[in-house]
Design brief:
- It is a single chain.
- The chain is an alpha/beta fold.
- The chain has one domain (about 10-190): NagB/RpiA/CoA transferase-like (Rossmann fold).
- It is about 35% helix and about 25% strand.
- The protein is built from 7 helices and 12 strands.
- The chain has helices spanning about 10-25, 40-50, 60-65, 70-75, 85-90, 115-120, 140-150, and strands at about 30-35, 55, 80, 95-100, 100-105, 110-115, 125-135, 135-140, 160-165, 170, 180, 185-190.
- The strands form 3 sheets. It has a 6-stranded parallel β-sheet with strand order 1-12-7-4-2-3.
- α2 (about 40-50) runs parallel beside α4 (about 70-75).
- The N and C termini lie far apart (about 35 Å).
């Protein structure tokens, strides 16, 4: 007896997630899947493996995953508040952000914050972990544009919006690709499967 095929919506979601993972991997992004309950331990393990000693967690990630801070402390990481001065944020070895949404077509994550410190959590540290709810994964740039249009009238507005596709890279110098010159050297995306935090 053959197994029933997945429902169309579930099949579409799996296909979108698979496309996202493949496109993200093509630009050197490490993509993991986890349930919301597994996120704190997974993030602590990723940062421990990277040898990070300190981490800044943006406000949205801290609110969505309340057990995250304790898991990071238990793993021996020092927490830097996102409201800390920029030099302290720049000294943090790692940053953790909650994505507003992801784009499967390009393997990108979109970060949208209202506070500068939350934005810097994903721009200054060498290691960046982005938490992306599977429910917030969009198929393509057209869907992303519709979401961005809605934000233009949002209250409060989201003044800091960044599309992040892989770790920071440049080939400005003699056309030699260099990773991490103007931002994180490594990007990890944790796709939160059940979307519950």
């Amino acid at each position: 007896m053959s197994a029933e095929p997945p429902a169309p919506a579930l099949a579409d979601a799996r296909g979108t997630a698979a496309t996202f993972a493949a496109r993200a991997a093509s630009v050197s992004t490490d993509v993991r899947q986890a349930s919301a309950a597994e996120v704190p331990a997974l993030v602590a393990a990723l940062l421990g493996d990277a040898g990070a000693g300190s981490v800044v967690v943006d406000s949205a990630a801290a609110a969505a995953f309340p057990a995250l801070a304790e898991a990071l402390r238990a793993a021996g990481l020092a927490l830097v508040a996102p409201a800390a001065p920029a030099p302290l944020l720049a000294d943090a070895a790692a940053g953790v952000s909650l994505a507003a949404f992801g784009i499967a077509e390009t393997g990108s994550v979109v970060l949208a914050t209202a506070a500068l410190g939350d934005r810097l959590a994903g721009m200054l540290p060498a290691e960046h972990v982005v938490l992306l709810r599977a429910a917030d994964l969009l198929a393509d740039l057209d869907a992303a544009a519709a979401r961005l249009r809605a934000w233009t009238t949002a209250d409060p507005p989201r003044p800091y919006v960044s599309f992040v596709t892989g770790p920071s890279r440049t080939a400005d110098i003699e056309r030699v690709l260099t990773i991490g010159v103007q931002g994180p050297c490594a990007l990890h995306v944790v796709l939160v499967e059940d979307g519950r935090c």
